[in-house]
From TrEMBL:
UniProt name for this protein: Uncharacterized protein
Organism: Sorangium cellulosum So0157-2
SUPFAM superfamilies assigned to the protein according to its UniProt record, in alphabetical order: TPR-like
Region (Disordered): 160-196
Listed Gene3D superfamilies: Tetratricopeptide repeat domain
Source organism superkingdom: Bacteria
Amino acid sequence: MLALYQAARQLLDAGRVAEACAVLEQGRTLDPTAINLLLRLGECLARAGRTAGAWNVFSEAAAVARSAGDPRAARAAAIAAALEPRLSRITIDVPAATAAPGLEIRRDGVLIPPAQWGQALPVDPGTHTVEARAPGRRRWSTVRAVPPDGARELVHVPTLEQEPPPHAPSAALPGPRGQAPRLLASAGRSDGDGGGRAQRVIALASGGAGLVGLGLGAAFGLEAIARRDASNRGHCDARSRCDAAGVALREDAQAAGTASTIAFSAGTAALLAAGLLFWTAPPKAAAPPARRAAAAATAGPGAFSLVVGGSY
């Protein structure tokens, strides 16, 4: 933890505030009850202009210190109270009469529970993406730029349009009359590689699937970390006691973590299978000798000869 403190201080001294905050965020993930680290992180976020993030961290530090009987609770609570009038907020308006069944609202990828629809939620100044989706409906999204210093932004979510019915697959276009369809390979011919080539193709396909699995595992892992961090920002205390939004965020984080583990395991297995298939594939067969033919004619007084030869 001391190394993280020193790295963050060096970054702050160099004016690299955003990177310093990211380092302190790592320390917060490692030890969410470190009061001194939370105070330093809150100061860093406030210096970076991320007032909502700073307010959340100072509020969290006050709760942790209060539960531990630490006198620093008063200082953290006072800073959070001073930041509150400067908080910018977004209100997401979802009319109940137009809400589709299964409607989900996300802000910057984080699920907003229905209990918080219509509430003025604190956000950091800058651009934010609000997205709405529901089964059988077209997805809708908008991007809003929120100014600093107590700005208010209202987002109205419209009625989502119905998804169009799936199109039937179109029939293949007929070729010219009297012309048979072309085949990729002529009947009775072999490429001389047999099962080796097919095994290498399967190996490459398995390797591609493995890379996709690893990519999905990384994506789900990052999603789990983001949901866990979001739950710690004012929704859950140090003893993991959460409000409704915190419970939803924790459940989403657990589901994303499980999906990440499954995707990583499947991707690793596919890559191992690909390597085994590729290295055990039979080598390519030697190309058959080319067919050649030759003819030579000689002529002389009263004689003529023709010599024909070839190799098959």
